[in-house]
Design a protein that fits this description.
The chain is of the alpha+beta class and 207 residues long. It has helices at 13-18, 28-37, 41-45, 68-82, 98-112, 153-159, 162-175, and strands at 86-90, 122-126, 139-143, 146-151. It has a two-stranded parallel sheet. The chain has a two-stranded antiparallel ribbon with strand order 3-4. The longest helix has 15 residues, at 68-82.
């Protein structure tokens, strides 16, 4: 499980990831695979001591201080390293850029839907960034501690309720800056833009 207030330990990269499963914490190959899944490999490999780099300056003055986003990648790597049959993640990508977030959620999706011969795992994640919810098999919408909607993304968008309102509100931030000279963008459901009022005397009805 990954909490929002995840652990940041004054040890090496390798140890921070290996703490996910102590009996395997010296398995470097497994550690490297876990960091690759969490999009942490590139910045770890760029350091002279790589996975043996000390983190924070609590014990070593030369220790590496990480950004909150880098720490979050290490926390996610630790969860991948543990390799549990059920993973629970509370805002696991809140501090990551969109590219890293997409890469990690692709890995979560692969855990739930492995290639032929793989054993599927149950992944439960809590998120307010609803772009990540589109890969979920089932979405549960909570309001004031109560379940108000549940279902697949497509079904909840068609329902046009609480989830659709939240999703469209977030998505609007990405499309409202489209240059007006480029013409109107498709709406969030993928439908083509509606002609302006007055086109053929009426606006076509939405399905």
């Amino acid at each position: 499980m990954i909490f929002q207030d995840f652990g940041k330990y004054a040890f090496t990269f390798s140890e921070n990831i290996g703490f996910g499963k102590l009996e395997n914490m010296n398995d470097r190959e497994r550690i490297e695979k876990a960091s690759e899944k969490s999009a942490a490999t590139e910045f770890i490999s760029s350091l002279n001591d790589g996975y043996d780099t000390a983190l924070t300056r609590v014990f070593e003055e030369s220790g590496r201080e990480l950004s909150i986003g880098q720490w979050q990648k290490i926390a996610v790597a630790r969860a991948f390293f543990r390799d549990s049959s059920i993973m629970i993640l509370d805002e696991p990508t809140a501090s990551l850029d969109p590219m890293a977030e997409q890469e990690i959620f692709n890995q979560f999706d692969e855990l739930s839907h492995p290639k032929a011969g793989g054993v599927p795992k149950t992944t439960i994640f809590v998120s307010h960034r609803l772009s990540s919810a589109t890969i979920a098999d089932k979405i549960v919408v909570l309001e004031n501690g109560q379940i108000v909607e549940e279902g697949h993304h497509r079904d909840l968008i068609r329902l046009d309720g609480k989830y659709a309102d939240l999703f469209n509100t977030q998505a609007k931030r990405y499309i409202e800056n489209v240059d007006q000279n480029d013409g109107p963008a498709p709406d969030i459901n993928g439908r083509p833009p509606m002609p302006p009022h007055g086109f053929n005397g009426h606006r076509p009805p939405r399905n």
